[in-house]
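Hi L., both proteins are below.
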Amino acid sequence: MSPAPEIGVAVFILNDNKILFGRRLSSSIGANTYALPGGHLEFGESFEECAAREVKEETGLDIKNVEVLTTTNNVLSDSVHLVAIYVRAQLSDPNQIPQNVEPDKCEGWDWYDLKNTPEPMFEPLKAMLQDGFNPFPTDS
């Protein structure tokens, strides 16, 4: 029997023209790559609730205006199938500074321009951005 897909929520936290990325250290999905804050969707949780919880747990930041942007469906190995829900959020207070709340899981957090993202990046996220995905709101 194949393992069930894992469902994760990844958060594009936008601050001016920058996005928050951190380098994962643990043996979890995306180890040793730069990724967005986020994590596993808990039973009964909305995507927005998951985003706020994971961001707080990982960075200490409070977020608002969480919007679902897109999803990806990635089979990463014979035993890992990840469905990722990508959301966008803003800082509740723009003066907040990200903290490395889980140093056993992440090297630290920093802001990066979309044109100068850190490497190595989590492969599904990298592919999505290279294909032209833009997490920033566009003026209508």
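That was the first. Here is the second:
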Amino acid sequence: MKKLNKTILFLCLLALCSKAISDSAYDDYFTEQNGNDSLTDDELKILEDLQKADKVGVDGFGLQGSVSKPGEIVFTFGVSRPTIVCAVLELCDIALEKGEKINTVQIGDAARWIVDSAVSGTGNDEVQHLVIKPLDNALKTSMVITTDKRTYHLSLKSSITDFMPQIRFIYPEDTLAKLNRLQEKKQKEDERNVISGTGVNINDLNFNYEIEGDEKIRPTRVYHDRQKSYIEFPEKAVNSPLPALVIVNKVNLFSEDDLQIANYRIVNNRYIVDGIIERARLILGDNDDALTVDIIYKEE
């Protein structure tokens, strides 16, 4: 019995010595020059700067992710290297941009991390996911995801209980491109809506006029842009005599209306009057044979 106890004690001492030698060798490896891969001062400085950039984000605002809703972390793509924290016995779900297709996935520690794929939505609403699960806590590694649109560089860490259930990204460059496309579209629409020869956008005009009178001199439309009023005739009208334009200051039931010659200019097939016409009359001819058209602005 005593011999057995001595044997067990010897084996325990041997194991402790082996562990001490192993730990000592491990420490020596990282204190010797070779343990540091013979890095130069310049190379160490670059790595230090890289670590600082990872901590605060390239733009210096600490864009390391924000909580958008319970369980979801949002990272801004391209401003820092995101760190994804996962937990043993839990899943981390990384959702890519809608319509983005995964080409390859590379992970530094493939033995202790499980990476699977999933898809949500269909057609144009399809979203590809990567589901990550660590097999142990206190693990650190890196992962690279290449897609048909971009490349993601991520850091992975594992914990016993803490983890990020859902991860997605926002893409500033895509947002800016979308805004530029919307601006270009609006500009083209504005250009299409500009009335030829005036530089006036049709969306800025008020067409709330009633036009009553003889068809032969009737304008096609009357409108104002808060600065000027426009009376537009058919294009063929420029080859015919054009009516005179007068301002109606007052309509009299038993005598002649109070009329005033309007100050206007003719540009192609349009009369242009400074200010907003309230009530006007077009007159072509003399006396009882004259053709007339009344233009009346209706307040909204």
